[in-house]
Amino acid sequence: KTTGKHFDYRYLITYWFLLLAQKHSFTSALSSKFRTRQSIRSSHLQMAAVTKVSRIGKLTPSTTTFFLCDIQERFKPLMYNSETIISTSRYLTSIASTLSIPLIASQQYTKVFGNTIPECFANGQVDVDNLKAKNRIFEKKLFSMMTTEVESELEKEYFQGRDSVVLFGIEAHVCVQQTCLDLLEQGKDVHIIVDCVSSQQPFDREIALTRMESAGAHLTTAQSLAFMLMQSAEHEHFKVISKLTVGHMKLPNQFNSSYEKSNL
Fold it and tell me: Which segments constitute the Isochorismatase-like domain (predicted)?
C-alpha cells in the first residue's frame, strides 16, 4: 500500500513475518513427520530383528524354562502312547535337573485327576531339590497353564530373561495348545516336544500340533532339544546328557512310525 508517493513498508514487513511463520510451521511439521516416520521405521526394524531371532528358535539353558502340563495319574490309561509320554517326560526333567533349568508343572483339578505321575520326574520321584530349585507344581482349573499364580511366578527376578519355553504334556488339543497360544501372545519363544505331547485321540493331537506350529511355535523332539541346549561336545554336562540320551533311546518310542506299524 502506498500513501501518496510513499510506499508503506509496514504492510510488507507484516506480510514477510507471516510468510516466515508459515514456512517455519511447515518445516517443523515436516521435520516432526520425518522424525515420527524414522521412529516408526526404527521400531519396526527392532521388532523384526527380535521376531527373526525368536523364529530361529535357538535355545540356551540360561534363557529357558520347562513347562510340564498335566501328566496325571487318572489320564495314564486314556492317553495315546502314554508310556512314551511318561518316559520322555522323565528324560526331559532329567535334562532340566542336569542343566539347572527351572521346571514349572501343572495339575488339572488334582482332586479328580490325581497327582503328576512320579515316573515323569528325574529319578522317578517328585523331588524339587533334585530338580535344582526354582521348580513348582501348580494346581489349576483353567485349561491353560498361565494361571494368575504361574504369571506371578514368572515375574520373579529369577525368570527374567527366560523368554524360551519348552512345553510338553497333555492334552495336546486342550491344555497344551491353550498354554502355547497364551505364551506366544506374550512374546515367548515356544518349543513343543512332539514325542512328549499327546491326546486321547491321535487325530486331536495331530491337528493341535499343526495349529500350534502355524501360530508360531517350534516343533522339535526331546533328543534334538537336549543337544540344542548343549550346542557342543565340549559342554561340561555332555557325558551326563549323552548317557541319559542313550538310555532313553533304548526305550520304545510309540510315536515312531515303524513302531506303530509293528503294533497294529
Answer: 65-223
